[in-house]
Amino acid sequence: MKSSLAKNLETLMQEKQISQTRLSKISGVSQSYIFKILNDQIKKPSLDTLEKLATALDSTVAQLNHSLELPKEADPVVGLRKVPLISWVQAGLPTPVASLDDMDKWYICPVRISKNGFALKVRGESMEPMFFEGDIVFIDPDVPAESGRIVAAVDDGAADPEATLKKLVRDGSDYYLKALNPDWPGPKFQPFTKSMRIAGVAVGKYVEL
To answer: 3-state SS string over the chain?
Structure first.
């Protein structure tokens, strides 16, 4: 018996009268790979591949992978994306994550995150009690940095710029970075200066056991 993925993909292709060759062209997934999915030779393609096929077929990952009866707005996996774990120094670089060449560990983000999202591993105690050492924090550069959000901020005026996780706070027309740990011995509020920028907004975390 064919898997749900193989049957749903075949049904959608028939309904939209799209051949394997055509689907390959508009999705960017190779024809041989599509053939293997249709014949259950590949049963668990990557999320990226599923997203490409779903987009090309005007469907969703959940409809494609589970049931065509699922409404688009009820897609249980929409927005889930695998993002790279990078260093705090890399997060401080004004370089697109996609161009970094030493990303050897990836995490599935449990919440919606853009294709430019990335993950950071918490170090030390400065971010407690919200984040503890070893926690994985997901950062999205495309989310608006509003007052009250936890942000990865970078001071380009520092000798060795790297990201730091702080709460962005607004007081009138001025912005400050607030330390997350109330017991941290350093300053509780740091003015957000012209040399600073937001590398991204924290959208979720993952705790490794």
So the answer is: CCCHHHHHHHHHHHHCCCCHHHHHHHHCCCHHHHHHHHCCCCCCCCHHHHHHHHHHCCCCHHHHHCCCCCCHHHCCCCCCEEEEECCHHHHCCCCCHHHCCCCCCEEEECCCCCCCCEEEECCCCCCCCCCCCCCEEEEECCCCCCCCCEEEEEECCCCCCCCEEEEEEEECCEEEEECCCCCCCCCCEEECCCCEEEEEEEEEEECCC
pTM of the model: 0.60
Which among 89, 122, 78, 82 is positioned nearest to 106, based on CA atoms?
A: 82
The single residue listed with the structure tokens 């049931």 is 67
Cα–Cα distance for residue pair 93/68, rounded to 1 Å: 42
Tens digit of each residue's pLDDT, the chain (209 residues) = 788 889 999 999 999 999 999 999 999 999 999 999 999 998 888 777 888 898 899 888 878 877 777 656 544 444 467 788 888 887 777 655 544 444 568 888 877 788 788 899 988 788 888 888 889 999 999 899 999 999 999 998 888 888 889 999 999 989 999 988 888 787 789 899 999 999 999 998 887 66
Per the document, the length of the chain is 209
